[in-house]
Amino acid sequence: xxxxxxxxxxxxxxxxxxxxxxxxxxxxxxxxxxxxxxxxxxxxxxxxxxxxxxxxxxxxxxxxxxxxxxxxxxxxxxxxxxxxxxxxxxxxxxxxxxxxxxxxxxxxxxxxxxxxxxxxxxxxxxxxxxxxxxxxxxxxxxxxxxxxxxxxxxxxxxxxxxxxxxxxxxxxxxxxxxxxxxxxxxxxxxxxxxxxxxxxxxxxxxxxxxxxxxxxxxxxxxxxxxxxxxxxxxxxxxxxxxxxxxxxxxxxxxxxxxxxxxxxxxxxxxxxxxxxxxxxxxxxxxxxxxxxxxxxxxxxxxxxxxxxxxxxxxxxxxxx
Length: 320
Hints:
By secondary structure, the chain is of the alpha/beta class. It has helices at residues 41-49, 76-90, 102-113, 136-144, 150-153, 159-165, 168-178, 186-192, 216-229, 232-239, 241-247, 269-272, 299-302, 304-318, and strands at residues 5-11, 14-21, 26-30, 53-57, 66-67, 96-100, 121-124, 260-265, 290-292. The protein starts with a strand and ends with a helix. 46% of the residues are buried.
């Protein structure tokens, strides 16, 4: 981690922790759940070597980014404002934006609400979806047809928080393994094939350790941070989904003008249940989607060399 620097920045009432590397055009990297800036450890180095200033924040409620208010807002509007505020704090008018998982959802919203600030987009694992006709939890209840659903399970305050925090190391290693390419078809089964009363963590076996892409030291970093903070900050993003649907009625309804790249894993449930190429209807400058064989959800960690090469090639052509 010798080229990676750390600091805390005042962003919209947050003490935002960022990891950064390099100098040059700005690239902001947004992580998902249960992740941290650390999910971009491979990209920070590669982007710095390629002549970019790469910045990976801990999102609000995650890691070392803490809100100063007693009851922080975890809605999409707040996460988008944090992303724009980060650019302002860095003195940058624009940045290429890269997002994975919930970070990709933030990317799509930020690109639509502030297209002038984010002229190039790279989304990992989660494609842009049009606005649903009903609030997300209603839509998911109809889709799941009585089966277990992660977002619905995460809705009740305190329940998943306690289950995940009971043994943080076990929770993280099982979730990270269960949605990875190393687990094969298990990820698809976990997303759409469990009975309604399933115990999520019990459905995932312990992985062979260490995983090829996640060393014991990597897992220890995640575990130490989530043991300190708990999981509530990340889970609150799921609980804000219906609020976001009412609060931002235009999101998912307008074309995006930016050049955009999508990368996903062949075994990623969001890729298998969707069609990333269909995004071109609302993103006319979408590059041909890249789907990596045998890869799961954690694409930038599972396949860092391939992701870095595609990311740098795209940014060299379209970055700021």
